[in-house]
Amino acid sequence: MSSDEIIKTSTGMTTSHRTEQVSADKAADDAYPTSSKYALELNNVEAFYGTFRAVAGVSLKIAPKSVTAFIGPSGCGKSTLLRVLNRMHETLPGTSVKGQILLDGVDLYGPKVDPVRARCLVGMVFQKPNPFPTMSIFENVISGLRLAGVRSKSELESVAETSLRKAAIWDEVKDKLHQPGTSLSGGQQQRLCIARTIAVKPEIVLMDEPCSALDPLATLKVEELVRELAVDYTIVIVTHNMQQASRVSDTTAFFSMDEQRAGYLVEVDATSKIFTNPKESLTEGYIAGRFG
Amino acid sequence: MRLSALIATIAAIIPLIALIYFVIVRAIPWLDAELFVNNPLDKPSGISNAIFGSLQLTTAAILAVSPIGVLAAIYLNEYASPRVASWSELVIDVMLGVPSIVVGMFAFMVVVPQLGVSAGAGVVAIGILMLPIVVRTTQEVLRLVPSSVREASLALGVPVWKTVIFVVCRTAFSGILTAVILAYSRGLGETAPLLLTVRGTFAQNWLDFGTTMNALPLTIYSYSGAADSRTLGQAWAAALLLMVLALALNIVVRARTVNSRVA
């Protein structure tokens, strides 16, 4: 991926231009090595709601095509930090971000970066499955592309199938693509949302407690899916479920809250290390279930 | 207690039943095809000028007002700061409460001197009465669209304006249509502003908003004092038509609200 790729101004960029850009990205992706060793690099990142500091001084490096789990007690800023990573945090009124985030070596909050373009590259799956209520399964999957101006029916159909296959839901929905997305079960809806997210070909997929509204079987399916997706995507997953973190992630970052109720990074390491031999006693206490 | 409450309920329903009964019984003998075809200037057997006048006035007003009202509601719900939104909502609520005769007088004093006594002036007056209904109802419907839908769209890299039009409004489309129908049905029955602006005519007027037009409420008003049974009967017939139209629209609104996928 070329390093100036996320730098697009929101004005002057026509929709068709952007779609070409999306498909061109993939080609560029294969042709050139990435400019940075890391998919994401966070340097002293802070996030605010008004004057309240929700995330304090987080520095973290995330390797490409890996699964990174954010764990920690409620209110420690995991979800906020996740929303900072695709510039969704700023869509809420009164919020702000400090520090530096490098996405493939490019400053995500740099003056030339279009947040809309950034959100194409860094997709997000939410806690509660949120398919568009008035759209069919098919329309849901291709919504991102269609809203970006893709008109070609054959392209949309092929992307829909690929995305639904990748999200391991194709076999369950292929005969009812034109039924409403909301007619599916919770677990299926969540996989539909994952399909919708990867349909716009992101580099990174953020998942905010994607299984917390699902039953154990549906959770298992989504977890298997996360492992499969890590072949093509860099995944950052927030979870309250420590077994889940140990099952799906390569790297685990443990967060806690300081006296001012600001979330900070306690430690980050290989998941096997965090769960067997963490450096910090705070991490050990949380893993062992002594608090949190 | 229970018995007295029951009696009170019956007492409340009686006027409605009596009203519907009287209108239907008095109007039925005069309901025929000629009523819809002829206008009183050519043949005394019809009130087509009023029927189609009403439809033209209300349709013109809704066409003018809906885009403004829906866009205003979108602005207030999706873009405006809470401060601006709450002040604007206050203004709109006040507008909703303004008696229609006051709006009629305003149109008479301000619009009629510009446009003359004309259908155009009537459209302005009805439009002023419809606008807050469209804005307020649309706003309520947009509020029902969960924020998770907006977030899902933004997270896909969809710009805000596209999210608003193609996701939020699409989700709320059925409800927005309901808001427009509701405003239409309210506009259909407005009488006071028409008395001061359009005044009515015996002639058939097709789409000439520069001169006078007739409307069902105006026909009811001017015919119900008549001495001859035909004119009086036509007043009842006009009343029945107006009632059926308004009732039908309200039933449509009700059915849509019950089946609404958003709510």
Task: Describe this entry's structure for a reader.
The complex is a heterodimer of chains A (292) and B (263). Chain A is 37% helix and 23% strand. Chain A is built from 11 helices and 10 strands. Chain A has helices spanning 15-31, 78-85, 115-121, 137-147, 153-166, 170-173, 186-199, 216-229, 242-248, 271-276, 281-287; strands spanning 40-49, 52-62, 67-71, 95-103, 106-107, 122-125, 204-208, 234-238, 251-257, 263-270. In chain A, the strands form 2 sheets. A 6-stranded mixed β-sheet of chain A has the order 6-7-8-3-9-10, with helices on both faces. Chain A has a 4-stranded antiparallel β-sheet with strand order 2-1-4-5, covered by helices on one side. In chain A, α4 (137-147) runs parallel beside α7 (186-199) and α7 packs parallel to α8 (216-229). Chain B contains 12 helices and no strands. With 263 residues, chain B is an all-alpha fold. Chain B has a single domain (46-256), classed as MetI-like (MetI-like fold, Orthogonal Bundle). Chain B is 77% helix and 0% strand. The chains are: A alpha/beta (292), B mainly alpha (263). The A-B interface holds A 10, 86, 88, 91, 93, 116-121, 123-124, 126, 128, 130-135, 143-144, 147-148, 193, 196-197, 200 and B 81, 146, 148-149, 151-159, 162-163, 166-167, 170-171, 173, 261-262.
